[in-house]
Amino acid sequence: MRRMKTDPVDLTLFLAQSVVDQPPMVRVSRRGPTVIVRVAPGEEGRLIGRQGRVIQAIRTLVRAASDPRERVNVDLDAPRKQ
User: rRNA-binding as a keyword (predicted)?
Assistant: First the structure.
């Protein structure tokens, strides 16, 4: 069975835009094996979800759709509270 390759950046952008209230503010970039997601200020909680379920579901979908030989991680680029 042949698998279709899906670009992890495009899939992450689509999924993140589907979750937040301000889809045009979503930015996705790639640094090595990590896909970085940036959302509008105050929207981090919507992307993380309760107990991290939404971001974990996005990670699972992106890993399942990407090349099995490539380990992809999705991370939220948010300012850290001190």
Answer: no
pLDDT in tens, the chain (82 residues): 556 667 899 999 999 999 999 999 999 999 999 999 999 998 999 999 999 999 999 999 999 988 888 889 999 987 666 5
Look-up: residue for tokens 């996705």? 28
**CA-to-CA distance for 31 and 21, rounded, in angstroms?**
26
For residue 62, give the 3-state DSSP assignment: helix
47 vs 43: CA distance, rounded Å? 7
Q: Which strand ranges, in their side-by-side order, compose the sheet holding 27-31?
A: 27-31, 34-38, 73-76
